[in-house]
Amino acid sequence: MRIQLWKQTSLWALAILLSGCGSGGATITGPPPPPPAQNSFLYVANGASGNISGFSIDSSSGALSPVPGSPFTAPTSINGSMAASSTLLFASDGLTAPFAVCSISAATGALSVQTGPLPSNSALTAMAVDPAGKFLYGLNTGTDIVIYSIEGRTEIGGSPFFFPGVTGNADAVHPSGKFLYVSDAGNSSIFGFLITSGTGGVSIFPGAPAPAGVAPDSLALDPTGQFAYAANRDSLDVSGFAISQQTGALTAIGGSPFALGGSPDAIVVAPSGKFVYVARGADDLVSGFAVDAGTGALAPVPGSPFSSVGHPMALAVDPSSNFLYVANNSANNLTGFRIDGASGSLSVIPGSPFSTGQAPAKVLSVKP
Known about the structure:
Elements: H1 2-23, E1 41-46, E2 51-57, E3 64-66, E4 72-73, E5 81-84, E6 88-92, E7 100-104, E8 111-113, E9 124-129, E10 135-140, E11 144-149, E12 154-155, E13 161-162, E14 170-173, E15 179-184, E16 189-195, E17 202-204, E18 210-211, E19 216-221, E20 227-232, E21 237-243, E22 250-252, E23 258-259, E24 266-269, E25 275-280, E26 285-291, E27 298-300, E28 306-307, E29 312-317, E30 323-328, E31 333-339, E32 346-348, E33 354-355, E34 360-366
Antiparallel strand pairs: 1-2, 1-34, 2-3, 2-4, 5-6, 6-7, 7-8, 9-10, 10-11, 11-12, 11-13, 14-15, 15-16, 16-17, 16-18, 19-20, 20-21, 21-22, 21-23, 24-25, 25-26, 26-27, 26-28, 29-30, 30-31, 31-32, 31-33
């Protein structure tokens, strides 16, 4: 009898407790669901077909799927240069004007060609966007620097900026937004420029430019802004520089230049800052390097170089640093690689290569 009474009393108390939890308006719930993953997209400038292929990147496998409407026809042939902010993509044939300005759909990755006064008569052979997405820095046939206010949709005051003796091939903006760097293949040098806060204007660093190898055609900075790397076409190596965070001055890294074994066409630093990859078109190879976080020195990753058949001439790493994509110019496709996060070694993604338009010349990844 006592046992039965105890059971009834316990059940009654439990019922009161449960009733009280719900009667005050409070609700016991689990942890909130994680926010939906943002899409990452890949864009390829097809030089011969004059359009842009857009792909959605599968975050698990790295496989590519065409975005709605791809390929996108641009108002100019696309072969010279391409750059992007989180919302806009810019592309040029490097020979004529105007260049194309496209808005990027954050949901689907689809491109919409914009109209307006931003494009001008400048033929931009290289382009870079500052980290804040305020200014576009273009090299006008390599002889001067054209700077556009993206929000104002016009060139800034004083643009184009002409600097005697500077003939640029590639440019890159420091992650702080304070410095601009231009590689000059003719002078085998890297020029540095101070960016004026607010206006976006540039003034050249005092003194001589930083000496690179022979014919530095492409340039990349690590995401922390500590190091810069130039791929030297004719000396078959990579020049590495430490960047002064105060002045932006470049100092050669110990051990630089780093041998490639073949002529480079493009260079990229993974967003993680841990690895550098170089496309070697004439050899159908991609070289991979691990970055020493303290010194910036480069050491080949296991298995380097890696095969990418069809004259690899451009490459991009996705924002997660999990995948590398290489544009094979004569094969009209992309080779996709998974990046080993510990070693930097590459393995081909299932389904690779992925078809593009004709003669893919530039590739970049965007996370709106």
